[in-house]
Every structure is written in structure tokens, then in C-alpha cells.
Design a protein that fits this description.
- The radius of gyration is 23 Å and the shape is elongated.
- The strands form three sheets. It has a six-stranded parallel β-sheet with strand order 6-11-10-9-8-7.
- The two termini are 32 Å apart.
- By secondary structure, it is α/β, with parallel strands linked by helices.
């Protein structure tokens, strides 16, 4: 989040925005705007929040307007990560009316979706702020939007898990079953990767955890679907020898109790896959 518009890769932003505009404009462009708005018309518009939340996605919103007309001025009033109150002005837009109106939905779709993810993340992060636990995302993201949704998680006060299958090893139950054992899976992982790649392994019983501890080949252990009592015992058994991560059906009602067990991380898929879009609107500025 460097600067008011964010710190996303501009190439990734441009590609995503162009693909979305192509989808929206179709074969003939915005025929409604072309039919009703004179080519010479200009407009002054504002994007404002219609409900409370956390802001994310300004860079994508700005890129949507710039893609259709670089002369459109997009002036952000807030920064990504800012708390939103109903009515808060997020950005002011001024320039040629036709491209500004045609870019509206693409800009709001990105901004509303990512602000929704940031808002959902912030709700969980607030519940565990009295502990050391960090709220993490997962790979349960919207296809094609992962890098943006993971950015939105950071805007909401969360942390990122691995971005894909290529940046860390996460040994899950199916890997263990096919490999033959916890030990075989860990041995294979250690032999395969370099010293800079982290290894995480999933367990759902204390007996499995004891085998992971005895092996010593993991950097992180994922404690799957354990209640608070089991989690507390698991954290005690690990004793700081590796990072601990809790996962599995964690809700806003249960996340504080999970965090209070002493785990380092809590991964929650619903902050991305089930986050509601934040209600934002674009309107003509009142003089």
C-alpha cells in the first residue's frame, strides 16, 4: 500500500482492467451513453461509500477511467486501508463524460469487491487484536483476481498465505495418504526444495502432531478443525519449535477463542470466497 492508490503491479492492473472493460463494452461499446450524452460533454463525479467498511482497490478504479480516456482526472480522497463511514467521499472524477460513465461499472466492481474483502478481513482482525494471532487468507479466491484479493486482505489488516502452488510447500491430508505417511511426505519435501522454501504440513490429531514434531522437517504446522482445547494442547506440545496455524470453519463468533489458544496464524477462506461486495456508488457531484 504505497501511496494513496496502492502498490499493485501496474501491468497486472492494466491487464485485469482491460479484460473487464472488453467484457463490458462488448462489440459495439456503451450504446446507452453514446445515444444520450453529447461527445463534447464533461462530467464531475464522486465515488462515495454507502455503508461502513474498509477501502481497497483504488488503483484498479483509477485504471478503469484512464484506460478509456487518460485525460480523466481521478483524485483519491482516501487511501487503501482507510475506514469508511456511510457517505464518505472516496474519489472525485472529472473529465469527458462519455468515457467516465462507460468506466463506472468496471471501476465500482473492482472497488466494491476488494473493499468487501478488506472489510471482512478487518472484522476478523479486530476480534483477535488482543492476541498475537494474525488473520490469513487462503487460495480460495476468485479466479483471476487472487493477487488483488490478497492485496485487499492486507488492506484489511490481515496477512497473506502462499500466493500459489509454487511459492511454498503445504502438505495436506491427500498428499500424506498418497505418499504413504507423514514421514515420507516430509522426507520428499525436504529433498525436493531449496533452503529458502518453507514447508507446512496439515494435521488433525495430536498423534499426527507428535510425529511431525519428532521428524523435525516442518517449518509450520496446520492444525485443522481442532477445537480450542485441542489447539491449546497442540501449541503447548509444539513449544515454539515451529509456527502454528489454525484452520477450519473459523467464524467471527469463534475466532477470538481460537486466537486465545496461542496460535500464530488463523487461516480463513471466507474472507475472500464469501466476502460480500461493499456498497459504493458513483454520482454526479453536487455543485
Amino acid at each position: 500500500m504505497s501511496g494513496p492508490l496502492g502498490g499493485l503491479d501496474p501491468i497486472a492492473v492494466r491487464r485485469a482492467v482491460e479484460a473487464t472493460l472488453t467484457e463490458d463494452l462488448g462489440r459495439a461499446g456503451d450504446i446507452t451513453t453514446a445515444a444520450t450524452i453529447p461527445a463534447s460533454a464533461t462530467a464531475r463525479l464522486v465515488i462515495a461509500a454507502r455503508q461502513p467498511g474498509r477501502l481497497a482497490g483504488l488503483q484498479l478504479a483509477q485504471a478503469a477511467f484512464a484506460a478509456l480516456d487518460p485525460s480523466i482526472v481521478f483524485a483519491a480522497e482516501l487511501v487503501d486501508g482507510a475506514k469508511l463511514a456511510p457517505g464518505a467521499v472516496i474519489a472525485r472524477i472529472e473529465g469527458p463524460a462519455r468515457p467516465a460513465l462507460s468506466a463506472e461499472r468496471t471501476a465500482l466492481n473492482f472497488l466494491g469487491r476488494l473493499s468487501g474483502v478488506a472489510t471482512a478481513t478487518a472484522a476478523y482482525a479486530d476480534r483477535v487484536s488482543h492476541t498475537k494471532a494474525k488473520i490469513c487468507c487462503t487460495r480460495k479466491t476468485t479466479p483471476g483476481l487472487r493477487v488483488f484479493e490478497k492485496y485487499a486482505v492486507r488492506c484489511g489488516g490481515g496477512a497473506n498465505h502462499r500466493f500459489g502452488l509454487d511459492d511454498a510447500i503445504l502438505i495436506k491430508d491427500n498428499h500424506i495418504a498418497v505418499a504413504g505417511s507423514i514421514e515420507a511426505a516430509l522426507d520428499g519435501a525436504k529433498a525436493y526444495i531449496g533452503h529458502l522454501v518453507k514447508i507446512e504440513i496439515e494435521v488433525d490429531t495430536l498423534d499426527q502432531l507428535d510425529r511431525v514434531i519428532a521428524h523435525g522437517g516442518a517449518d509450520v504446522v496446520l492444525l485443522d478443525n481442532m477445537g480450542p482445547d485441542l489447539l491449546r494442547e497442540a501449541v503447548a506440545r509444539v513449544g515454539g519449535r515451529m509456527a502454528t496455524e489454525a484452520s477450519g470453519n473459523v467464524s467471527l463468533e469463534t475466532v477470538a477463542a481460537v486466537a486465545e489458544t496461542g496460535v500464530d496464524l488463523i487461516s480463513i477462506g471466507r474472507i475472500t470466497h464469501s466476502a460480500p461486495t461493499l456498497d459504493l456508488g458513483l454520482d454526479v457531484a453536487v455543485a
